[in-house]
Design brief:
Layout: H1 4-12, E1 17-22, H2 29-36, E2 42-47, H3 58-72, H4 79-95, E3 100-101, H5 115-126
Parallel strand pairs: 1-2, 2-3
Helix pairs in contact: 3-4
């Protein structure tokens, strides 16, 4: 919840919009609460799916997918389901006024993969197996 000190400072500085950084699994309850309370400054979410792309540790990734299942209400048993759940969350952020995305990638590694290879890699991660050199 935003403290009174911040609200006073924002009003004094004539801030009109504040964008927060939020993970796709965030419930955005404080955004909803501020909107319902009629807070004059727009507080909008920014979609930041860093954790959704962090596949280096299968256990952490699998735990993240389970949290995405819980918040989206969707079964995720394939890569396509995973993308659908992320799109649903993206749509939710859009409904909450979010129009921005932010990513904190340290590097971008590019390799070509077929849809079948990506799907197989996703199942491998969900089975708790580490990625092979070409998969990472």
């Amino acid at each position: 919840m935003m403290s009174f000190l911040y609200m006073e400072c924002y009003e004094k500085m004539k801030v009109e919009v504040v964008c927060t950084t939020d993970d796709p699994i965030d419930d955005l309850k404080y955004h909803q609460q501020l909107s319902a309370d009629g807070f004059e400054i727009k507080i909008l979410p920014t979609f930041r799916p860093d954790a959704a792309m962090a596949v280096q540790d299968p256990v952490t990734f699998t735990n993240y997918v389970h949290k995405l299942v819980a918040v989206s209400g969707n079964e995720i048993s394939s890569f396509d389901h995973y993308l659908q759940a992320l799109k649903q969350r993206h749509d939710f952020f859009h409904q909450m006024g979010g129009r921005l995305s932010d990513h904190g990638l340290n590097y971008i590694d590019y390799s070509e993969y077929t849809d079948a290879e990506v799907s197989k890699t996703f199942i491998r991660l969900m089975d708790g197996k580490t990625l092979r050199p070409k998969e990472g």
